[in-house]
Design a protein that fits this description.
Oligomer: single chain
CATH class: Alpha Beta
Strand content: 15-25%
CATH architecture: 3-Layer(aba) Sandwich
Number of strands: 5
Distance between the termini: 18 Å
CATH topology: Rossmann fold
Number of helices: 5
Radius of gyration: 14 Å
Strand order of the largest sheet: 2-1-3-4-5
CATH superfamily: Dehydroquinase, class II
Helix content: 40-55%
Largest sheet: 5 strands, parallel
Low-confidence stretches: none
Structural class: alpha/beta
Number of domains: 1
Shape: globular
Length: about 150
Amino acid sequence: MHKVLILNGPNLNLLGTRQPEVYGRTTLKMLEETCVSHGAKIGLDVSHQQSNHEGALIDAIHAAKGNQDGIVLNAGAYTHTSIALMDAIASVGLPVVEVHLSNIHAREAFRHKSYIAPVALGQICGFGLHSYVMALDGLLAHLQNEGAA
């Protein structure tokens, strides 16, 4: 069974109450429960972490090397600012799927640039909670295809 870390960045602890018109009413706990349940159905062992601190996210990415088979990452606003997160992802050599609840390309111009995208396997955005489900499905397909190569 493949192990996948879902890593959520700043302000995602406020899901359900923070700008529900943008992010919906799903709480972080509901998101985590859905991902763990979906992961179990498709054969993934899903764990999760959330931090509002860039260094803690980097530490989690580093710790995933050798312990996880892939990462689903919602770096929040760090997506658009953090070269350090980009470097951490590039350094560990794990497949990472970048995910966002909202469609970052339909929002403010500063959200259109992702420092994560160049080092990610792919990017899924705009589907709310279902963005995470699709990310897990895509990551599993990649891991299975990688093992068949």
